[in-house]
Amino acid sequence: MTDHDLFQHVAAQAAAFRDSLPGRSIPAPDPQLAQAAFGGPLPEQGAEPEEVINQLIAAAEPGLVASPGPRFFGFVVGGALPAAAAADMLATGWDQCAFNSVLSPAAQAAETAAGGWLKDVLGLPAGASVGFVTGAQAANTVGLACGRDHVFAEAGYDVARSGLVGAPRVRVLASQERHATIDRSLRLLGLGTDVIEAVRTDANGAMDMADLARVVSEGPAGVPMILCLQAGNVNTGAIDDLRTGCELGHQAGAWVHVDGAFGLWAAANPATASLLDGADQADSWCCDGHKWLNVPYDSAFAIVSRPELHQRVMSYRAAYLVGSRAEGEMADYTPESSRRARGFAVWAALRQLGRAGLADLIARNCALTRQFADGLAAAGFEIGNDVVLNQALVSFGDDEHTGRVIAAVQNAGVCWFGGTTWRDRAYMRIAVSNYATTQADVDRCVEHIVAVAAATA
Ligand SMILES: *Cc1c(COP(=O)(O)O)cnc(C)c1O
User: Fold this and answer.
1) CB atoms within 10 A of CB 60
2) pTM, full prediction
């Protein structure tokens, strides 16, 4: 097989997997089976590429999950739009290093263009800088790193040079229901988690702004402060009152970061855009491409209102780079140095959807989430949250019974939902973020869940 034939063969395999998604059962993955298929010592001798690829396909097949399919509602995974997935295959074929414009003017141009479109559809300042990172974890880390360096600089301390040993005190205010990646970012940034002052949440899991005002004012004055807001509570979809949060934070001199991994996308749909009112007032934003934009893994955006600061915090200089780069290119905004050209898939996703298609994707997923909640409520089950976005929580009675229903639904393979604990109660968590999910899919799932729950009584 020539290289050319090999790539065609692989493309056909990828296409066949995608074609299989709507009809594919979503089995409970058996990690041991997959481990056995891939295991064994490294053979002494190499093998033909075709043989390797066929082995890989055979080994992977039983362990592949139909998570990009239309009836997978666990976590917040999204699917992969055809143009985006195909563009990512090109990114691999082209093997461009998205470091700077010397290495790939095309990658740089795609990220610049896609970054501009992103700021536009998300309603963020046109002058902000965009780093194309792996995920919201990395985007939160970049935003908080910029915040850390900025608030210390305001206090006359250069953390980039002097590190945190001997640094002045700092405050980090974040919601009780913040995403756990915020804690990991703070650990990675050397700030630790003890620094967090948790702000209470309201009935639906958004930050309680009166409590934020209390926490801000009760703490010591004049201490550098970072405020972390959230757009999209992972359990309820609740979005913090960003305008008030930014005002309270800025009055106290804080850097305001918004973790909008999926919730920020609500800004792209006129019907939900008001939930993001004031988002543009923040200093940094985290947003995922691989969730609601339906770009393949891995893809997210670290957006910062001050490009010079963003560059100062994330870039490096080296002798071999002199004369081969301009300021403010791709690697200046990300924690990675060399990396894949993520911008092609993002550009392709936005270009496939257009402004109207993106609004429609968000609106449809929100409507389908409502359809789930209404259907399950009509069957007598309790919806635990106010469904404001694409997240719904369902209880099937006591926690133990809810757990058994979730397990039975997962085992049946028709659709997949995860479990969660919210406000000390167990729920099945429904997250709708795939472009391919239809009303008929949701009807079928509701009917199925009701039947499984009845059989699990
Ligand atoms: C998913 C999520 C994250 C983490 O995102 P990754 O892309 O997995 O790194 C962070 N914050 C929120 C609110 C999320 O929903």
Assistant:
1) 13
2) 0.97
